[in-house]
Amino acid sequence: MKFMVIDDSATMRRIVVNSLQRIGYSDFLEAGDGAEALGKFDGSVDFVITDWNMPNMGGMELVKSLRSRDDAKSIPILMVTTRSVREDIVAAAQAGVDNYVVKPFTPQVLKEKINEVLVRKGEAA
Amino acid sequence: VSSPADGPSEDLLFDLEVALRMAGDLVRDLDDDVLADAARPSIPEEEAGADPSADPGSPLAPEYLLPAIVAYTYREIYSALGNLQEGRSELGQIARDRIPDTHRKLREIGDTTELAATDMLDGLDRALELVDELEPEGDGGDPAAGSGAADAGPRPASETRDALRDQLHDLISALQFQDITNQQLEFAGHLLTDMERRLSRIAANFAACFPDGVLQAVEDGAGPRPRAAADTAEPEGAGSGPRGDADAPAADAETDPAQGECDDGPVNFDPEATTRNAGERQAVADEIFTSPSTGEARAS
């Protein structure tokens, strides 16, 4: 499974990738913001993990953009962010985010939320 | 109501307003006769030559000119007072609402970095103990004979390696504090920039109340002026004489950095970013994402 990890913090991208490796995944694509992610996105990506606050194009705009594309309308998207106000989380869900991880997170939480999405998508398929 | 958060900027503006009020009252109290005496030329009339101001009937004559200047100054001081009051109110609101939050965030950064450093040092200590456990294996000795295993008893080397791997992964995860504290610093920096912009606007309004060269003459005699007025506050209307466009800048973008937008464009930080209560905050997200209504919204 190929993950696309989008975060403007290089430190956070490395931490997310490291956590995914710890969980057992090994195929990654990275981007520093939503615009770069859209440029790199192709049919090989199976799962998107994105931050919310980023320059150029934020996570919410990226999610809406992906959900409007035929090749990404059902791709699993996990938001990993510091934003934890209830209204923000609801807005993310309404925009099309499949699950939500609040920073700082543990690899265990990341694994749980990824699995929840995969199970849900698997059941829906 | 005054609060510690009002700070030096509030005090400075208050003092300035009081000083201008006193100056305005003094000007108003000046007697016309006193003004006329003060306006009397100190040079002999024969030395005045053809200067039109030497003609007692001319509107440029000192006895007419000085009261006109005083009246003009009086009017402009009251205009400046209006701008200052407006600025005080605006800055006071910021000081009350946002500076305490910024202080709290800066304190949290200190606490967070100290805690993270302690966690990492503890983790490194544990990792070193695990390396000590493994060391004899590399030398062909007992794989669990290291000092760290002395109390817990011998355990397989593979288990020790797994423990060491987990320990090192935990250390990597602990570095998330960098992203979060960076956002907190971005917030504090953004607030300072916003305060500077607002102070500059007040300074510009104030400067626009005076004719060309007046403030410069004062500044030349008073040493270097503050950066806010000197470098960023050159008013568009200042060069067009008294008042100019002084009212215009006060009405421009009123933005709140905490709301995500500012004059510099979208912000790249979460104003509420924190390392604290991650479990409780995750529970809120879990509740929303597992509720049937959220599932229905996603499905639609």
List the helices and strands and how they pair.
The complex is a heterodimer of chains A (125) and B (300).
Chain A lengths: L1 E5 L3 H14 L3 E5 L2 H7 L6 E4 L8 H9 L9 E5 L4 H10 L3 E4 L4 H18 L1
Parallel strand pairs in A: 1-2, 1-3, 3-4, 4-5
Chain B lengths: L6 H23 L2 H8 L22 H36 L1 H40 L18 H18 L2 H31 L6 H9 L4 H5 L15 H4 L10 E2 L2 E2 L11 H13 L1 H8 L1
Antiparallel strand pairs in B: 1-2
Helix pairs in contact in B: 1-3, 2-3, 3-6, 4-5, 4-6
Biggest sheet descriptor of chain B: 2 strands, antiparallel
Helicity range of chain A: 40-55%
The strand line-up of the biggest sheet of chain A is: 2-1-3-4-5
What spatial form of chain A do the alpha-carbon principal axes imply?
A: globular
Protein traits:
heterodimer, A: 125 residues, alpha/beta, five-stranded parallel β-sheet, 5 strands, 46% helix, globular, B: 300 residues, mainly alpha, two-stranded antiparallel ribbon, 65% helix
Descriptive account of the structure:
The complex is a heterodimer of chains A (125) and B (300). Chain A contains five helices and five strands. With 125 residues, chain A is α/β, with parallel strands linked by helices. Chain A has a five-stranded parallel β-sheet with strand order 2-1-3-4-5, sandwiched between helices. The radius of gyration of chain A is 13 Å and the shape is globular. Chain A starts with a strand and ends with a helix. The relative contact order of chain B is 0.08. Helices cover 65% and strands 1% of the residues of chain B. The radius of gyration of chain B is 34 Å and the shape is elongated. Chain B has eleven helices and two strands; from the N terminus they run αααααααααββαα. Chain B has helices at residues 7-29, 32-39, 62-97, 99-138, 157-174, 177-207, 214-222, 227-231, 247-250, 278-290, 292-299, and strands at residues 261-262, 265-266. By secondary structure, chain B is mostly helical. The two termini of chain B are 51 Å apart. A two-stranded antiparallel ribbon of chain B has the order 1-2. The model of chain B is unreliable at 1-5 and 223-263 (pLDDT under 50). Chain A binds chain B through residues 7-9, 11-12, 14-15, 18-19, 22, 52-55, 58, 81-86, 89-90, 93-94, 96, 98-107, 109, and chain B through 169, 172-173, 175-180, 182-183, 266-270, 272-275, 278, 281-282, 284-286, 288-289, 294, 297-298.
